[in-house]
Amino acid sequence: MNIAIISKDLELDIFGFEAIATNKDYVGTALTLSGKMWEVVKAQGLKNKGLNIWVYETANKVFAGVELENPADDYMYGLQKKKIILEKYAYYKHIGPYNLIKQKGQDMTNQLTIEGYEVTLPYIEIYGHWTNDETKLETELFMSLK
Predict the structure, then answer these.
(1) pTM to 2 decimal places
(2) In 3D, which of 138, 132, 62 has the Cα closest to residue 100?
(3) What are phi and psi of 10, to 5 degrees?
(4) Are strands 10-20 and 80-86 parallel, antiparallel or unpaired?
(5) What is the C-alpha R_g of the chain?
(6) Count of structural domains within the chain
(7) What secondary structure, in 3-state letters, does the chain show?
(8) What's the pLDDT at 72?
(9) Which of 2, 60, 64, 100 has its CA 20 to 30 A from that of 28?
(10) pLDDT at 76
(11) What is the rounded CA–CA span in Å between residue 110 and residue 63?
């Protein structure tokens, strides 16, 4: 597993929705939030970068959003804004089926722990553009490090 350790700030301003993952159903919660977010984005014609961004936080919170091209903070049609700044983080690009992402995240955490890093939240997944060929799906994984 080729994990990069990066000490340059990662800054994301994303717009979407947040909720508590009931019964720790993070994926189900994030999928619901993403659907709700895309309904608003499409209905309002908000220009965006087209990538789903899921943020996993403390207390079982999940945020699902997208980066907007020209956000207007004063009127976001009900979307919540989340600003993420990671000062030091681990990065891994998963190429393959989405159902392997959870295992890749666990593998990443295990490898980082063995190497002496302390993994903290938030943990971020950025989903690349959709393709029907599951072997070509790209998902970027970002783990905050202490």
Answers:
(1) 0.94
(2) 138
(3) -105, 120
(4) antiparallel
(5) 15
(6) 1
(7) CCCEEECCCEEEEEEEEEEECHHHCHHHHHHHHHHHHHHHHHHHCCCECCCCEEEECHHHEEEEEECECCCCCCCCCCCEEEEEEECCEEEEEEECCHHHHHHHHHHHHHHHHHCCCCEEEEEEEEECCCCCCHHHCEEEEEEEEC
(8) 72
(9) 2
(10) 78
(11) 24
Tokens (6 digits) for 12: 């994301």
CA atoms within 13 A on the CB side of 98: 12
Dump pLDDT digits (tens) for 70-101: 877 656 789 999 999 999 999 999 999 999 99
Structural domain that includes position 31? 4-145
CATH code of the domain in which 111 resides: 3.20.80.10
Residue 109 vs residues 3, 92, 103, 118: alpha-carbon distances, Å = 10, 11, 10, 9
* Length of the chain as a residue count: 146
Average pLDDT, integer, range 124-143: 96
Whether the upstream peptide bond of residue 122 has omega within 30° of 0, thus cis, is yes
- Tell me what the mean pLDDT of segment 135-146 comes to: 97
Q: What per-residue confidence (pLDDT) applies to 108?
A: 97
